[in-house]
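A.,

Following up on our hallway conversation. Structure tokens first:
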């Protein structure tokens, strides 16, 4: 398994990639799809999203800048805003500071899966099955980070994926970041808040009043569904 913060397309060639922006973009996308959203179209710029709405009034616009809802948008980036009565059957165009960009950065991979604690087990099981079927030998984990910097919450979630994948492939090669993420996850698996309380983005969201999002995004495996980013769209596999 490899594990990148800064990725180039060639690094991911021939691999399946798991992209993690635990707080909160990938958790929010997965929850929206799990609540019945038809698809999510991640875009990098606010103007792109607004253009989508101009062309098709039925799309919902979601995302954040500075952690908060963008002017003219329907939804912020809190997973708890993406209730089934709001998102069911809808196409959501999303732009966030780091998460949507990380998905695009992973473009060189053979297949791309948004990942989060909330559906990690199901995603890992699916990837293992598909990798074995299609003779894929590398699984990459791409962490979105925050403002181009390493963030602890993504690394903890990456460590959980390493833990799940390692169980099936005990002899697989792990690069140093994968080993570090695994060890960190193991140390804090029962209480991730214990380490995250020192971290930047976790505290930032707390200050903005999103304490329930922190609890939500750190809960494991209550979503039994896998999402894939394919042809510029996130959908259920
Ligand atoms: C991002 O993509 O930058 C994050 O999801 C920001 C946030 O937590 O709202």
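Then the amino acids I'd put at each of the 237 positions:
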């Amino acid at each position: 398994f490899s594990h990148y913060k800064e990725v180039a397309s060639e690094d991911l060639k021939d691999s399946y990639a798991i992209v993690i922006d635990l707080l909160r973009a990938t958790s929010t996308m997965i929850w929206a799809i799990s609540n019945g959203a038809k698809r999510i179209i991640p875009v990098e710029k606010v103007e792109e999203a607004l253009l989508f709405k101009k062309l098709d009034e039925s799309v919902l616009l979601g995302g954040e800048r500075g952690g908060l809802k963008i002017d003219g948008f329907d939804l912020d980036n809190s997973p708890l805003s993406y209730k089934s009565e709001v998102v069911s059957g809808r196409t959501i165009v999303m732009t966030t500071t780091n998460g949507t960009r990380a998905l695009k950065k992973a473009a060189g991979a053979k297949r791309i899966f948004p990942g989060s604690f909330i559906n990690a087990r199901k995603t890992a099981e699916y990837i293992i099955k598909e990798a074995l079927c299609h003779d894929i030998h590398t699984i990459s984990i791409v962490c979105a980070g925050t403002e181009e910097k390493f963030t602890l919450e993504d690394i903890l979630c990456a460590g959980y994926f390493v833990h799940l994948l390692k169980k099936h492939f005990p002899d697989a090669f792990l690069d140093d970041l994968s080993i570090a993420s695994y060890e960190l996850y193991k140390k804090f698996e029962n209480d991730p808040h214990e380490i995250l309380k020192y971290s930047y983005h976790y505290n930032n969201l707390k200050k903005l009043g999103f304490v329930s999002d922190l609890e939500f995004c750190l809960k494991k495996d209550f979503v039994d569904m896998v999402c894939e980013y394919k042809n510029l769209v996130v959908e259920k596999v």
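The pocket of D-malate is lined by residues 21, 23-25, 64, 67, 77, 96-99, 205 (CB under 6 Å). Curious whether your intuition agrees with the design.

B.
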